[in-house]
Design a protein that fits this description.
single chain; alpha/beta; 6-stranded mixed beta sheet; 26% strand; binds adenosine-5'-triphosphate; binds magnesium ion
Amino acid sequence: MPECLLELKNIYKSFGGVKALENISLKINSGEVLCLAGENGCGKSTLIKIISGFYKPDSGSIIMVDKEFKKMELRDAIKGGIQVVYQDFSIFPNLTVYENIAMNTLISKQKKIVKKKEMHKLAEMALEKIGARIPLDSLIETLSVADKQLVAISRAILCDAKIMIFDEPTSALTNKEVKELFHVIQNLKTSGMSIMFVSHKLDEMFDICDRVYVLSNGKNVIDGEMCQFNKKKLVYYMTGKEYSDENIAKEVTATEPILEVRNLGLQNYFHNINFKIYTGEVLGITGLLGSGRTELAKAIYGLMPADSGSIYINGKEVKIDSAMKGLEYHIAYVPEDRLTEALFMDQSITRNIIIQTMKKVSRTGLYNSKKALEEAKNWIQQLNIKTANPKNKVSTLSGGNQQKVVLAKALMTDPQIIILNCPTVGVDIGSKMDISILIQEIAEKGVAVILISDDSNEILTNCKRFLLIKNGEIENEYLSKDYTESTLYSKLIR
Ligand SMILES: Nc1ncnc2c1ncn2[C@@H]1O[C@H](COP(=O)(O)OP(=O)(O)OP(=O)(O)O)[C@@H](O)[C@H]1O
Ligand SMILES: [Mg+2]
């Protein structure tokens, strides 16, 4: 029998009027990978914050090593071996790798004088344990996201982690890095550690998890061994919807391209890019992080103007050298990094949705808050954004729901061309299917959609044809009907 490391009993947690968790009881056993699954806003991150002592439950208790806590403090959780690898990794960008890894441990041992040599040794040991090779003296800010994550994991290991919790650890990783992370997780598991894992990607859940605990609206709907489920069944429990991954792209009837790029280039990022897109089309561009996909998108929108080649809209050459110009030509851009590029976190949901289109919600130059609220409500309903009140700050939304606000904001601008850069990262599977349908509806209304993604399933569901970008070049154009998720995936990482 595996040992039970942690038990939650009848946990409740509300924020104002929102019931985030209701009557949650859950056990974590040693040496297992437990998947916490459910739609955006169902309570996964809240549950994690309760386990780690960051939030106190309104009622219920947490049992750890035979000790029952009503109000567990952060330090109790850490003492009990609970470590969370957060999405921002909570590491210090201007310190070195070894300082970040070893600091906590030495501080907790209340050492007054900290020797570099000692820290080096500790850090080296931790990195070795997970098989990571990162120069100890590098500054964190110079590392890739994946390496930063490995630093955060190494630090957790040094703090004697027994349960390591990952809240959407794969959202900013390339496919190859995900594989490497899974290798590390497997090793941690073999060493007897328990892992709690959150992801919205079904394949990842089935790949790495032994058990699944499904939440819906803060309640537990089912849990069990992963092998008792398949994709269809799991999606049904999470969303109440039927899972489908069939291609839903419509035939394009337009004969003249709305946008054409010829020999477009931007030094160090991409070169010699040629393609056309037609009104009503959803054109896929698939490529990995660092392939030039984001810079290409930004060039078309005007955020990072190209330095060679040309762009034609409706057959006429245009110069798009700023984002204002992009907007002027009715191009909208949905960036992949919503936290830094797209949202004003301490402003309301409504404000964020209408921020680029103030004119639409103003009368005779005056901002009409009633109209703004109406517009926002409309989008909240259409995109199924989970919130009690459109006037709430965006920061109170769950991650996936924030992403939907970014989408709403772009759609408000009535674009004729919309560039979606990985629009469903962190979005739950149910909403991802809704967003696919919405993308088709937008296209049908006469918008050309450029869908950039490294999610093979997303490309194959939404597009009839797609381009593959690698090392800043378009390798070729392909038809979705000739590919399956796994053949496209292999092509992508080859
Ligand atoms: N600090 C907060 N203030 C107000 N409401 C909050 C707060 N934190 C979470 N909520 C609400 O609690 C609910 C659960 O949110 P949580 O972040 O746990 O969801 P999640 O399952 O992690 O979603 P996602 O998959 O999008 O990350 C949501 O309705 C959210 O809006
Ligand atoms: Mg979350």
